[in-house]
Design goal:
The complex is a heterodimer of chains A (about 450) and B (about 750). With about 450 residues, chain A is mainly β. In chain A, about 5% of the residues lie in helices and about 45% in strands. Chain A contains three helices and 34 strands. A five-stranded mixed β-sheet of chain A has the order 2-1-5-3-4, with helices on one face. In chain A, strands 11-12-13-14-18 form a five-stranded mixed β-sheet, with no helix packed on it. In chain A, a hairpin with a 7-residue loop joins strand 20 and strand 21. The longest helix of chain A is centred in the N-terminal third of the chain and has 12 residues. Chain A starts with 8 loop residues before the first strand and ends in a 7-residue tail after the last strand. The N terminus of chain A is likely disordered. By secondary structure, chain B is an alpha+beta fold. In chain B, about 20% of the residues lie in helices and about 25% in strands. Chain B contains eleven helices and 35 strands. In chain B, the strands form ten sheets. A five-stranded antiparallel β-sheet of chain B has the order 12-13-14-16-15, with no helix packed on it. The N terminus of chain B is likely disordered. The chains are: A mainly beta (about 450), B alpha+beta (about 750). At the A-B interface, loops of A face strand 7 and helix 11 of B. Chain B: It is found in: Nucleus, Nucleolus; Nucleus, Nucleoplasm.
């Protein structure tokens, strides 16, 4: 198999976690070969019907040059056997649509098939279908919405969904949204309940995978745990308000009946441990749905036992105010973005909690603001304030697999979501949707 | 003449010594006396020379005889006595007898003749041991101690032990005068002579008992009847002995004449031993570094050759030009000449001139070798910790918030979450620090000169300074409790009584029915000519705030009493900035060149700091209250230790243009300075509670990112309270957030 071309050759052993394994065998390959040659080699060796492009990772770095150049750069002798891992290539993302907004988009979601939901700083929630038409718009909050999540429910009809939003107005809300599937019906939205605990702007809201509970985090360093049932009456009394405010409130509610009025909910439990702003709280994956992960400006990542309301583990970094946290698809790795321009990986499995050392960090040239996991455990996407969205393979931490720039100029990316081969990017310029197939097989 | 006399006398004296060397005559003494007096004539000298002292020889002799007789008698007596005592006594020194000499007729001492047989060494006469002068310890282990004359062994006499010896000393009275005789190995009593000898030696006297140290002198040639009258030579005394010397006189007269004519100066100053000239280039000196090498003469070039190549010769033009130029301006002080042979070269007419120039060169050459300091410039730089060890500090621009006009002022909320920034179009924006999203915007007439957030934690509002007015604004999204308190603070339901209705400062609260979040709830209207409030400084408790107007007026406003007062009746110079001390009731006032520290409670001036800055632009006080930084338009930044001195502890000149703003971080040991050169500099400033340790100031980072517009750079910098994040506003209308 080794070609008879001139020049030095390098011994290489291939390994992979893809379903295209090669026999573990040492290959003597010409040093001048690049990714393309290696990919061809594997395709031919396996005689695949449909050619699959591969990328090659050598010592945690993706191979972008020829083998000889890589060896020269990294000071590896030609006699040494290189262990090369190959992964399926990520196709360069392609822009599918650009949906400008009136205000900045703080949160995007591809949760609902067929729709992109955005929450904006003007207090609106908007939905767009795949044909870029605005399917739904409603003002949920009078203040900026900082975060949005879907509350999964089983018994509801197909077009009605529960959405939880968090806002600068110190509260989170649960709203029912009915998206009309055909243009004849009108889309409706109704705010069911508002969650009152926090004394600072609520930074994020997260729903339990079963839809039974919600978590909210706030700038006042508290995390609130709520159930999603709508009470029949206010659990929290309305504050004594002045005449002027009451007038305003009345105008806003439009003289609704008392039964239709939004209910003021109180939290089930308050999780107190952070010492500064909590920037995001998320629930664990289905396997460990009783644990939650939060990160904050006090440079800590905390793992919570939600049932008991206790902080079961604290990972303390030094001087890393965290902006966002996400779990990789397998739920074993937490990724936290901090203002020191890194996304740091922490192993959050029970077995490895004795050590709080990060297992690596992804360096960014600007502040990373948001992270979204892919469907495989190795792939994540991150957005940064320089307007560039990066796709990472966690096995190659030194540089991103591929990047693309959303919007013209330097507009901040504030939220990303990656589902079904589409990356929704929300930020200063509105919403952009890019096609990025995370898994070649699907 | 005294000189003559002296010399003649001297000569005479010498002669006398020659003639009678052994005699110390009276005449000599007298002459010495006369020499000292120096007034006697020559006659007396001659008399003295002629006279010879009479010697009374007879009397001397007689006395000698008598003395000796007496001595003899005494000796004889002693002898007889000693003989009577003990005839066997050994005479260590043989006794002398005095007899009258047959030849001279004089008495003389006669010693007994030494008879070799018996008298020579009587000590060995009866010594039985003839072993000789050998070390006796050779016989220590033997029963005998030697051999007698017949070769028989001399047995060791019995010797008692220590006790016997002790008893012997007690019993025998002569034991202490006996000594151990090695030869016979026994004690032997010492004789009287020997004891006397020991006593004399002990007393330090001459061991000879007969020695007389004070013997009378024997006069051989002096004394009565022994005078030697006849001279040794019959030659008549030469004339020169008494006639003054002619030649000496001549010589003296010559000298005298020379002195009179002034040719000889009697007291001429002595010429210094040091030669006036010395080789400056060659003489090594011990105390100085080795001599400098003399400047070298320039080596001759081709042009100076007697037969230079053609191209060195001057043509007519060049020659004319050479002649026209001044001698000192000529590039060459000679004209190259060509001769076909060395024989034809004329005498060198410039030799003297050239030597003179050479001497002049040597004379004018610098004598001091300039000491070149070989100092490594790195070693002069103080040892500072590396910036990477002093993290965190802002390193990059995280956010950019645009304004439509020059953003002059910014303020960060006490919780570090919100920023308000104001520009010259009158727009005040409230935006989120970590995202940079504008949440609310207010529009005012005219420029916004200053902004400051109230430091209270139980109430949240900020103050905007526009033309001749201060506006108090409540930001949105406050918790109800804080909102209520803020509202009652700014617009209390019952207004306190106005203390002075004639006060030029008017407080006005917006009526509740017309007030919305978009308008200020409370406004303070300053006097009409005061101008733009360029600075607002809050007291840490949030009850007092001080404002400085562009006209230089300083006002202190009290929130609870709704009262404003001007603390200074007259201010020397234009007030640039004011600050409240973070701990004490002190108040900093920076005028154009001085910073004054007042005690507000006692109402007196505490200190005047002189930064040496021509025009102060900004100042900030360290959160500990003991340190102050002052920046000036002349690019200087002065650090004051208030405990230490009125003079700056350190002056930093890092900016290339005027300093605009300074700010200490409230919690981190950092401060930032911004300048018109468009850069922000971050310093690490650690202050130790130990008074002996100087504050550590380390420049950390220069942040560039603002553009210079119309000569103005970064106008204000502010730190976030809880994070090492910096917010800066620039003349380019951009507010930047810098993160670590």
């Amino acid at each position: 198999m080794a070609s008879s071309s001139t020049g030095p050759s390098i011994p290489i052993v291939f390994s992979t976690q893809t379903p295209y394994p090669l026999p573990s065998q040492k290959f003597m390959l010409p040093a001048s070969w690049k990714r393309y040659h290696l990919s061809q080699l594997i395709n031919k060796a396996l005689s695949l019907a449909k050619p699959v492009p591969f990328d090659f990772i050598v010592k945690g770095e993706i191979l972008r040059t020829s083998l000889a150049e890589w060896c020269a750069e990294n000071g590896v002798g030609e006699e040494e056997t290189l262990e090369v891992e190959y992964i399926e290539s990520v196709m360069p993302p392609q822009k599918m649509s650009d949906l400008p907004h009136e205000d900045w988009v703080s949160s995007v979601s591809c949760h609902l098939p067929g729709y992109f939901f955005t929450a904006s700083y003007d207090g609106y929630i908007r939905a767009f279908d795949y044909s870029q038409k605005q399917a739904f718009t409603a003002q949920i909050h009078s203040a900026s919405i900082t975060s949005m999540c879907f509350i999964p429910s089983n018994d509801e009809e197909e077009s009605t969904h529960l959405i939880a939003t968090s806002s600068h107005d110190l509260s989170a809300q649960i709203s029912r949204v009915t998206v009309a599937s055909d243009p004849s019906k009108t889309s409706r939205s109704k705010v069911l309940a508002s969650l009152h605990l926090h004394t600072g702007p609520v930074s994020s809201v997260a729903s339990h995978p079963s839809g039974s509970h919600l978590l909210t985090s706030s700038w006042d360093s508290l995390i609130g745990l709520w159930d999603t049932s709508i009470p029949s009456s206010d659990e929290v009394p309305e504050p004594s308000i002045t005449d002027r405010e009451r007038k305003k409130r009345r105008k806003l509610n439009g003289g609704e009946k008392d039964a239709d009025k939004l209910k003021r909910k109180a939290p089930l439990m308050v999780l107190k441990s952070h010492t500064a702003r909590v920037s995001r709280v998320i629930y664990g994956k289905e396997s460990s749905a009783n644990s939650a992960y939060s990160c904050g400006f006090d440079s800590t990542v905390r793992i919570w036992d939600v049932e008991n309301g206790l902080c079961s583990h604290t990972i303390t970094a030094s001087e890393k105010p965290f902006l966002d946290i996400a779990l990789a698809a397998d739920g074993n790795t937490a990724l936290a973005a901090s203002t020191d321009r890194t996304i740091t990986m922490y192993d959050v499995r029970e077995s490895s909690r004795s050590t709080t050392i990060s297992s690596g960090s992804l360096l960014h040239p600007a502040t990373p603001s948001c992270i979204a996991p892919g469907t495989t455990a190795h792939q994540i996407v991150s957005g940064a304030y320089d307007g560039i969205v990066r796709l990472w393979d966690l096995r190659s931490q030194k540089s991103a697999m591929t990047t693309f720039k959303a919007w013209e100029g330097k507009k901040k990316v504030l939220s990303v979501d990656w589902k079904r081969g589409m990356v929704a990017v929300g930020g200063e310029g509105g919403l952009e949707v890019w096609k990025a197939v995370e898994d070649v097989r699907s | 003449m005294p000189a003559e006399v002296k010399t003649s006398k001297k000569r005479k004296q010498d002669e006398q010594h020659d003639t009678a060397p052994g005699v110390f005559s009276k005449a000599v003494n007298m002459e010495m006396l006369s020499d000292e007096e120096g007034s006697e004539g020559e006659e007396s000298d001659g008399q003295e020379v002629d006279e010879f002292p009479e010697i009374d020889a007879n009397s001397d002799e007689e006395s000698d005889f008598e003395d000796e007789d007496e001595e003899d008698e005494e000796d004889e007596d002693e002898e007889s006595e000693s003989e009577a005592d003990d005839e066997d006594l050994l005479h260590v020194f043989p006794k002398a007898k005095t007899v009258v000499s047959d030849i001279t007729g004089q008495p003389k001492r006669v010693y007994p003749e030494i008879e070799p047989e018996y008298d020579s060494d009587s000590s060995t006469e009866d010594a039985p041991n003839r072993v000789g002068n050998v070390p006796m310890h050779w016989y220590d282990d033997m029963p005998h101690v030697g051999y007698d004359m017949d070769g028989k062994r001399v047995l060791r006499p019995a010797r008692g032990d220590e006790l016997d010896r002790f008893l012997e000393t007690v019993e025998d009275p002569s034991a202490w005068t006996s000594a151990f005789d090695k030869n016979t190995q026994s004690d032997k009593p010492l004789t009287t002579e020997e004891l006397d000898l020991i006593r004399r030696l002990h007393a330090g006297e001459n061991p000879d008992a007969d020695y007389d140290p004070y013997e009378p002198t024997t006069e051989w040639f002096t004394g009565k009847g022994k005078e030697e009258i006849m001279p040794l030579s019959a030659a008549p005394e030469p004339k020169r002995r008494w006639v003054p010397s002619k030649w000496e006189k001549k010589k003296v007269m010559k000298i005298v004449r020379a002195i009179r004519q002034g040719r000889i100066l009697p007291s001429k100053p002595k010429a210094s031993a040091q030669p006036q000239f010395y080789a400056i280039w060659s003489e090594p000196s011990s105390s100085h570094p080795p001599p400098l090498p003399a400047p070298k003469t320039a080596l001759p070039t081709n042009a100076e050759s007697y037969n230079p190549p053609e191209e060195y010769l001057l043509n007519e033009e060049e020659r004319k030009k050479w002649e026209e130029t001044d001698p000192e301006d000529r590039d060459r002080d000679f004209i190259p000449q060509k001769y076909s042979s060395l024989r034809l070269v004329p005498g060198y007419d410039r030799f003297i001139k050239e030597r003179f120039n050479r001497q002049l060169d040597l004379y004018m050459a610098p004598r001091v070798q300039r000491v070149k300091l070989n100092i490594d410039p790195e070693s002069l730089i103080p040892k500072l910790p590396s910036p990477s060890s002093l993290k965190p500090f802002p390193t990059y621009k995280s956010l950019r918030f645009p304004h439509s006009a020059r953003a002059r002022c910014i303020a960060i909320s006490p919780d570090g979450a919100w920023v308000v920034s104001g520009d010259e179009n009158g727009i005040v924006s409230l935006w989120e620090l970590s995202v940079g999203k504008e949440i609310r915007r207010w529009k005012f007439d005219g420029k916004v000169g200053s902004l400051e957030w109230c430091p209270r934690t139980d109430a949240t509002f900020f103050v905007v300074g526009t033309e001749e007015a201060l506006h108090f604004i409540i930001p949105p999204y406050l918790p109800p409790a804080i909102y209520q308190l803020t509202q009652t603070l700014l617009a209390p339901s019952t207004l306190p009584p106005t203390a002075d209705a004639s006060s030029p400062v008017k407080w006005s609260t917006a009526p509740t029915n017309t007030w919305t979040d978009d308008t200020p709830l409370l406004s303070i209207h300053l006097p009409t000519t005061s101008g733009l409030p360029i600075q607002i400084a809050w007291h840490r408790r949030g009850d007092y705030l001080a404002t400085v107007s562009s006209g230089g007026g300083v006002w202190i406003h009290q929130m609870s009493r709704r009262h404003s007062q001007a603390p200074f009746k007259k201010v020397r110079g234009k007030v640039q900035m004011v600050l409240f001390h973070p701990m004490k009731p002190h108040f900093f006032v920076a005028t154009q060149q001085y910073v004054r520290l007042y005690n507000l409670s006692e109402q007196k001036l505490l200190k005047t700091l002189t930064p040496g800055i021509k025009w102060i632009s900004s100042l900030d006080v360290h959160p500990s209250g003991d340190h102050l930084i002052v920046g000036g338009y002349d690019r200087k930044l002065c650090w004051f230790d208030l405990e230490l001195s009125d003079k700056p502890y350190k002056i930093l000149r890092y900016h290339s243009r005027a300093i605009r703003s300074l700010h200490f971080h409230p919690t981190y040991p950092l401060f930032a300075s911004s300048s018109d050169d468009g850069s922000i500099q971050i310093f690490h400033a650690r202050v130790y509670s130990d008074l002996m340790t100087d504050p550590l100031i380390v420049p950390l980072k220069i942040l560039r990112g603002h553009e210079i517009t119309q000569g103005l750079g970064v106008l204000q910098v502010r730190w976030s309270n809880k994070h090492p994040w910096l917010v800066s506003s620039g003349a380019d209308g951009v507010v930047n957030v810098w993160c670590n």
